[in-house]
């Protein structure tokens, strides 16, 4: 009975409101009263709809731009206990809206599968977390030296650190030879002797080899520089500095449904554009909320949608969203006017004067808000003019 | 042709001396309003330049001995007039009527246009030097075209050109033309304007010749639309001369003429061009001709752009660089952003603002002097004749008068004492007078930076004595104004449409609900909040007094007041509320984490009676004001603004009777409280010392991913912050609960408990970038501490309160963080301003269509339904529809 009523109003109310009503209405409500409630709700909903022609873009821009002046600049706030610096505040918003691929402080929140998340075996959790951390050759090497007579590089290993990391000489050699095929590596107990496969090497080239192998990736996941297991709402998660979503999601222990990163570009690559759009909304909202400001999500959603309509994430810059505008004058009025006009002239571009600035420039009515409706008058027949 | 023109010149000068009665176009009432549908951009061909030119410029001279423009000179009157009294030889109109006409000069040798240098370079590289065909074999052309079209669709035209270059580079026959088998040489660009082929120079003549050879279809492949641009147009043979109206000369006080930068530059071009002509005709040696040619190239280049990287900018005699075409257009002060996208207005005023709480919220107080300068056009008709006549009689000197009278044909006459009588006689229906601004007129009030649509609202004029613009302090918040010397702007809309639009869309009451978060942006402020809090928080007054207060507020019906000798403050407050108003909410006392809250934490209004709860910022304040939001929802904007006005006065009236001040005594604490604070601080000090000791002895448990020192710092910060918070709790517990400072903090009117604690007990740790202060000398902050001192006081912990006073060191640390936050603000403003500009530029065209989709200017769908549910935030209650309220009222 009740469900039928709800169903009846489905076309008139968004699902969220129907669910809200269902949650708030007392169980014993009579059908007549429920109908009354639904009717009143749909009336209020209809009254709260946006008017056609409303300049929602400008409203969203204002709603995000205005509180921007109130945000603090260099907040390095602490995520969780007392760890990990994360860019927040205005710089973070600028970073997101620029559509940057390299972040100031990339970060991941890795959720774990049930067994591990409960944290029964803390040691195992710790070991798993540490295994994520990227280890390079230089992290456990005491010295890189060059044997000038043999033209070899001698890598002295720190056995203690290697044990902590669970590495053996053969594992290291395997990891190195996987990445470069032009090296011969000899196991010498406490050290490795690296020699180039090509025969006529100069000292210079050996030096280059030495510098190159320093940064070779040996173990863990590329890009993850710090790991920190944290307890959040009765379960353990791993917070990392540095981000590499593609590789982390491949791990079996990871709950791939909830694991996230703050790098929107990575999300776009791994999960697609809709996920990226969601990530933009979430990340911007997080910053605004943390500053104690009140901005409706709808505004952020609209910004995220303009960034994502083209199918890839485009920044709000002259190279991104603005470059996609159809109007020459609108682009020129933003940045680099000369370049835009010259290029328009080369291809004989036509400005159809569909948007706001061009019409403001020409002192014409702008096609938005009250400027949108046009009047068509039928000429009375039989009369001239 | 040149001869003909000289003949004309004679005639023309006569013309000017005795102006012949030319048929004059009277400014008409009936404007033909044309609508520009679209604008096409293209490159002018030499043919077109000649066609649109009205004069050929042949001499660099500007004026003759008598000061008349020389014919064939740069100020030729055929190019338009900039002197009063002269008439344009082309269109016959006078100054300000003639919009100017183009001329041209014939360049002795072709000159490369600096702005097309990149594309010319690309073209030369991709085209055969012999036959002019594109370096792609015929059989591959159609396929290449497909690829390129796809690239262009994906990206831009620039990507297309890049791709084309790539394709050609990847062909095997790089060095041979696939069509005529001619050998191709490597072409490089010697910046800024010289092309080199291997080691020999390609002269612009040769460049032009090669571009001419390119076939139309090959140019199209390149992304050039031949309809609008032939490649050879990019090498100039004719140079258009802009009309004088766009480069007017200024007459200095000394009577000297100072020419525009463009005229200077053009003068250089014409002079060198003439010299080049002469030398070529005289058969001068090649080297001299080449030199002059290069010089001409330099001048033309700097004429277009005076900031080319490799060229020294052309300068005035004073050494300041000339502002040529590119500089005129670009940047914030350039034509596009300064004159086209932003415009100046008349009928506006600006002065300092000051508060006036007795004014209505939607009023603005305007000084009489301003009101007598700003005018409103009023049309005369049969019925308002007498009303209008009064204004004209008063004239411009007496308020309310009129400044101008406009005849139906558009002729505008100033009203003076002499003309007053005549004007009065003349007045008849169809005339328009510009009368002084009066009470109730519609004005638009604005404060920069206009970050909001609420930064520009419509107010009713209220003419007042004095010299400042006045506004109700409640509307400060949307403007973000205060009265420390802020200035604001006032605009008077001049047409009926503009006035109506301002009234319906921009008036203060229509802007009550923020479109950012769906709550009231306007609310009670400062004293009015304290007053309403005092009134509703266990306050009693005699009925007599209550009636006195209420009548001061503007209430005349006291039937709602209980008939008792003493009435409760809540009852007095309830008198303002409508009788059918129900509301449930929370006051600031409400703590969601607690199970049971104080009774006053629940604001309950039943049938227009405040049953429980105190009125504070949560119910009345700006940016929260939940009760105000509920009132607005039920009774609409006009009622809300009226109620707000009354609430505001009620608060002030109550305080007027009780008195309200704050003093040093508010921060007094009892002896034992002070002892407790001292204990807390001592204990914190001891804890820190313990931490430092354990650090020195390496006993400190190191946090993962941190060094020992970082761990120590974090732990110390933790301890000290905890200590400061504890002193805060002590202060809020022991300080006089009824003190006015406390009332302000509790009601949310001004200040908070932290401020009080900082005054009464302890200012706390000064932190920069989330760390204790560690800058200054080597290993210490100030020279009075020993090296490596990690104690709280040596690292910026201020143990004193503001009342007890800070030690010199503490004061210094305090000023460090103070300076840091000042810098922060100074750096943030331009950053956030740029972000805002980018956002609004990117999104300004988005609008909701009639099918409820959100689309941009090219009708691309951005969202299918605005915000996923189509709700307008400014019509919502904090972003949603209040289901709870609906359920409650209907079940």
C-alpha end-to-end distance of chain A: 63 Å
Structural class of chain B: alpha+beta
- Indicate the structural class of chain A: alpha+beta
Quick one: biggest sheet of chain A?
4 strands, antiparallel
Using the alpha-carbon principal axes, give the shape of chain A: flat
Structural overview:
Chain A is 44% helix and 16% strand. Chain A has 385 residues and is α+β, with helices and mostly antiparallel strands. In chain A, strand 1 (76-79) and strand 2 form a beta hairpin. In chain A, helix 4 (56-68) crosses helix 14 (297-308), helix 5 packs antiparallel against helix 13 and helix 12 (264-271) packs antiparallel against helix 13 (273-290). Chain A is flat. The model of chain A is unreliable at 78-82 (pLDDT under 50). Among the domains of chain B are: 115-232, no CATH class; 348-511, Barwin-like endoglucanases (Beta Barrel), CATH 2.40.40.20; 527-658, Enzyme I, Chain A, domain 2 (Orthogonal Bundle), CATH 1.10.274.100; 669-811, RNA polymerase Rpb1 funnel domain (Topoisomerase I, Chain A, domain 4); 847-890, no CATH class. In chain B, the strands form ten sheets. Chain B has a six-stranded mixed beta sheet with strand order 11-17-16-19-10-18. In chain B, strands 12-15-13-14 form a four-stranded antiparallel beta sheet, with helices on one face. In chain B, strands 2-3-7 form a three-stranded mixed beta sheet. In chain B, strand 5 and strand 6 form a beta hairpin. In chain B, helix 17 crosses helix 21 and helix 22 (671-696) runs antiparallel to helix 23 (708-734). The termini of chain B are far apart. The interface between A and B is large, with 114 and 103 residues.
